[in-house]
Amino acid sequence: MKRLSDIKVGQLVVIKSFENNEIFLKLMEMGCVPGEYIRIEQVAPLGDPIAITVSGYNLSLRLDEAQNIFVEEA
Question: What is the CATH number of the domain that holds 23?
């Protein structure tokens, strides 16, 4: 498994698990739940934040949040 923060732009991945349970509720409210597909849309010029598509809408995540999401290629 890889971390979401290590995925390249345009890649489609599936959420598998979370490392930090404290951030899990916040991410779950935003549609980031295990089994959901995520596509990396953009990375900011300095690398943080990243723009993703999840559950049919666009979302911006900081890298420290993305590091807590474990994913696999779809």
Answer: 2.30.30.90
Give the predicted TM-score (pTM) of the model: 0.87
Domain that holds residue 39: 2-73
Q: Cis link prior to 45 (omega < 30° from 0)?
A: no
Blockwise average pLDDT, block size 10, the chain, 74 residues: 93 92 82 92 93 92 91 92
Domain count, the chain: 1
Kindly state the tokens that stand for 52: 């993703």
The CA distance from 25 to 46, in Å, is: 27
Residue 8 and residue 24: Cα distance in Å, rounded? 22
35 φ, ψ to 5°? 95, -15
